[in-house]
Fold this sequence. Notes:
With 111 residues, the chain is of the alpha+beta class. Mean pLDDT is 78; it is low at 1-8. It has 2 helices and 6 strands. A two-stranded antiparallel ribbon has the order 1-2. Strands 3-4 form a two-stranded antiparallel sheet. 29% of the residues lie in helices and 18% in strands.
Amino acid sequence: MCAMAMFIYISLQLCADDFVLLALDGSSLQKLINIVHNFCAKWGLTVNISKTAILIFNGTGRLLKESSSFTYGSLIVPSDSKYCYLGTTLTLSGSLSVNMDKKKVLEEKKY
Length: 111
């Protein structure tokens, strides 16, 4: 087995018309955003920037200043401290506590 075959890099997760771009560094993320922008421009698609956010996962759980430097075409992509994707709330620290609280409330409503 080749050593490179042991690593799988996921840069895109899709579900219907929602997707998440994942990157290990800022320049790679900006390249992915540019690819999406070019694809959408070519096919006449639009991205709703008001439903778009940049999250940089980090151990402190704080917004990093680098998170405000990404653009989609000429538009600045907003950064946030949490984002709900397909019912799962992602936080900067990677904590799932927000999700667990929601799940508990939903389970209590069932009874």
